[in-house]
Design brief:
InterPro entries: Bact_polysacc_biosynth/exp (IPR050445), EPS_ExoP-like (IPR005700), LPS_length_determ_N (IPR003856), P-loop_NTPase (IPR027417). Pfam families: Wzz. Its main location: membrane. This is Exopolysaccharide transport family protein. It contains 24 helices and 13 strands. With 736 residues, it is α/β, with parallel strands linked by helices. The strands form three sheets. Strands 9-10-8-11-7-12-13 form a seven-stranded mixed sheet, with helices on both faces. A four-stranded antiparallel sheet has the order 3-4-2-5. A two-stranded antiparallel sheet has the order 1-6. The protein is elongated, with a radius of gyration of 67 Å. 28% of the residues are buried. The N terminus and C terminus are likely disordered.
């Protein structure tokens, strides 16, 4: 079966789609005003809530004048990372602090924090009936804490060391007093914790200091006893006496050795000068002798006299000879003095050598004594280190004890927190924001109303139009049988169906089978018609054969025409049930004026149907009903005004296309319609049936007209001989 999608044949008329907003402006305006008014009323009667905030800074609060001497103030600063701030937030939010604030401000006496206070009669009744839990079952402290936590918020301000404390309440003064009280309780708690820590430290340090003092005395006594026992007398430079003496002898030995070497060197120089007969003027030791200096002066005077005498006297002159003899004696005296100096230097060198030997012996003795003292010094140093460590620890304990004791006695405990911004009494409530809520309600209601109107326009199909290129022949209306042509004795339709039939005849269906009686026809023409009777030309099949034909041909639509009225409409019902029993999805569309096809399937004519769908009073899901006796679905005539429904008759092809897409077969019962009336209901895969009860002239004329109007494959079907089921299918709804 080849069926085109409905989306290919229909399109959305945007002009008609959005024009629905203008047509329904009054309804939208009323809805918006009602919702806005309700929102304003709710906001006006809502309880006002006020919110206040207190800020606490976490920072060291100690003074430089109260800080211990030598301490670094930078070391007192706490590490304020995210974890540290989060820890302080949890401390502020602790139950202990909230309980203190609740007791201090008497929150348990307020109905806002304890619903048992001034409980209304309605709430008491609900508790007695059991529809509400009795709040008295919960302890009073827990009730107050629960309410406080609902109104309480603590958080750390990002990238700062400040913690914000927020609280909301119905009383603006209370909203400002509670966060201040919480901050004060937190600071007091931190101070109490520090004070307790100082007291504990002082109590701990007092006995420890006493023990350490005794240990220091014992350690120092051991040092003194060991030093005396080991004869480790201390000299200068914090060294033992043996070590100091060894150092001094070593220095003296070096000096003696240098003196001996100098004396030996000088004596050797004088000896060499005397042996070689050289001049002694170059020797410092000779020049430093006073006698030699005087003899040298005398030599100079004699040489000067000899020089003066030589100018007037000869060399053999007695005076010159006497002068030269005196000069020789002076030289001998000088050399004799030089030899004495040499002997003195030699004796000095020998004395220095003897002194050196003595010093070497003494140094060796002191070396042994110093080595023994060094071994004993190791033990002494260990005792001194132990005594020094205990003394240092004692001094530290004493410093800390004095600080802790002074803070405890003076009750001075600097807390590392302070209130930087106390809460202010709010003048405006933070909830409800009247104009914000009312504006939001107005905007939301306007949007919802507009969306609802557009969706309603879309679902009801009023905004649909045939798509460009769709082959839908423009025709008028589907003809419905008039109520006047039915036999009153055989009709049992309700008043609603009769009214619909009368209106259909009068206004809705302009082309019906009620027409002006035809003029008498010639006999020859009558005979010709008799020869072309469907019974002899087309043949006649029963309901089972008609169902088999529809299934075998794969038809998407089956149009039934019933010239004989409501009784012949049973063929469409029976065929639809047979095809549905074969396993196909089948829907029957009742287009008769009296609902003759759908009423036997629903046992009532009061269900919404095709007229409601055309009049935009219902959707597809509202007009499709289940057959009581089979799996077939049915769309009845409906209960809407047929005049209003026929104004939208152009949507009938679109509706047919949608139904064809959803079902395997759509069976349409048209009643006594003509070819023009059923033209808009057909498609490429459509079978046309003519339902008949008797082969009379009325059926024959209807069949001939349909064949001549373009339906040569017309099939005659009769419901006679078919046995319909007598009981409804189990599980289906009953007729209303």
């Amino acid at each position: 079966m080849s069926v085109q999608s409905a989306a290919a044949d229909v399109d959305v008329d945007l002009t008609q789609f959005f024009a629905s907003l203008g047509r329904n402006w009054l309804r939208i305006l009323v809805f918006v005003l009602v919702v806005t008014g309700l929102a304003f009323a709710a906001v006006s009667f809502a309880t006002r809530h006020y919110k206040a905030q207190t800020q606490v800074e976490i920072a060291p609060r100690g003074s430089d004048y109260t800080r211990p001497a030598g301490s670094n103030p930078d070391n007192d600063k706490p590490i304020l990372d995210e974890q540290g701030i989060a820890t302080q937030v949890q401390i502020i939010s602790s139950n202990e602090i909230l309980k203190q604030v609740a007791q201090k401000l008497g929150l348990s006496r307020l109905h806002e924090f304890d619903e048992t206070v001034d409980m209304s009669a309605l709430n008491r009744l609900l508790v007695l009936v059991g529809l509400k839990n009795d709040p008295m079952d919960v302890p009073a402290d827990e009730r107050v804490l629960k309410k406080m936590r609902e109104k309480f918020n603590v958080y750390g301000v990002e990238k700062t060391s400040i913690i914000a404390i927020e609280f909301s309440s119905e009383d603006p003064k209370l909203a400002a007093a509670i966060p201040d009280a919480i901050a004060a309780a937190y600071i007091a708690g931190q101070g109490a914790a520090k004070s307790e820590s100082n007291t504990a430290a002082a109590d701990f340090l007092a006995p420890e200091i006493a023990d350490l003092s005794k240990q220091v005395r014992d350690a120092e006594a051991k040092v003194a006893a060991y030093r005396a026992q080991s004869d480790l007398l201390m000299g200068g430079d914090n060294s033992t006496l043996a070590t100091q003496q060894l150092a001094e002898l070593s220095t003296e030995l070096s000096r003696v050795r240098a003196s001996r070497a100098s004396a030996e060197g000088t004596a050797e120089s004088v000896r060499k000068a005397l042996q070689s007969g050289g001049s002694l003027d170059s020797l410092p030791e000779v020049l430093s002798s006073d006698l030699i200096q005087r003899l040298r002066g005398r030599q100079v005077e004699l040489r000067a006299n000899i020089a003066d005498l030589s100018t007037t006297l000869l060399d053999n002159h007695p005076r010159i000879r006497a002068a030269k003899s005196q000069l020789a004696d002076l030289d001998a005296q000088i050399r004799s003095e030089a030899q004495k100096i040499m002997k003195g230097l030699a004796m000095q060198a020998d004395a220095a050598k003897a002194r050196e030997n003595q010093l070497v012996a003494d140094v060796d003795t002191l070396k042994a004594a110093s080595a023994q003292a060094g071994e004993q010094q190791v033990g002494l140093d260990a005792l001194q280190r132990d005594a020094a460590a205990k003394r240092q620890q004692l001094e530290l304990y004493l410093t800390n004890y004095r600080e802790a004791a002074s803070r405890r006695d003076r009750n001075y405990v600097p807390v590392d927190a302070r209130i930087t911004s106390p809460a202010l009494v709010p003048s405006e409530p933070y909830f409800p924001k009247v104009w914000s809520i009312v504006g939001a309600a107005a905007a939301a209601s306007l949007l919802l109303a507009a969306v609802f109107t557009l969706l309603r326009e879309l679902f009801f199909g009023r905004a649909m139009r045939p798509a460009r290129g769709a082959r839908l022949e423009p025709i008028d209306e589907v003809a419905m049988p008039p109520a006047a042509c039915q036999d009153p004795s055989t009709r049992s339709e309700p008043p609603v169906a009769n009214e619909f039939a009368n209106r259909a005849v009068e206004a809705s269906w302009p082309e019906t089978v009620t027409e002006t009686p035809a003029q008498p026809r010639p006999a020859a023409e009558v005979e010709t018609v008799e020869v072309r009777r469907p019974r002899s030309v087309l043949g006649e099949i029963d309901v089972e054969k008609a169902a088999e034909k529809l299934i075998a041909s794969g038809a998407a639509r089956a149009i039934f025409v019933s010239p004989e009225g409501d009784e012949a409409a049973a063929s469409a019902v029976l065929v639809a049930r047979e095809v549905s029993d074969a396993g196909l999805r089948v829907l029957l569309l009742d287009l008769t004026a009296s609902g003759a096809a759908s009423r036997p399937m629903l046992d009532s004519g009061l269900f919404p149907g095709i007229t409601n769908l055309l009049a935009s009073q219902a959707q597809f899901s509202d007009v499709i009903h289940a057959d009581l006796y089979s799996d077939c679905h049915v769309i009845p005539v409906g209960t809407a005004d047929p005049v209003r429904a026929m104004r939208a008759a152009d949507r009938l092809p679109i509706i047919m296309q949608s139904l064809t897409t959803a079902y395997d077969l759509v069976v349409v019962e048209c009643g006594p319609a003509d070819a023009q009336g059923i033209g808009r209901l057909g498609s490429d895969a459509t079978e046309v049936f003519l339902s008949m009860l008797e082969a009379d002239d009325e059926v024959t004329q209807a069949a001939v007209k349909l064949i001549e109007s373009g339906y040569p494959d017309l099939t005659l079907v009769t419901p006679l001989g078919h046995e319909p089921p007598g009981n409804p299918v189990p599980g289906r709804r009953s007729a209303a």
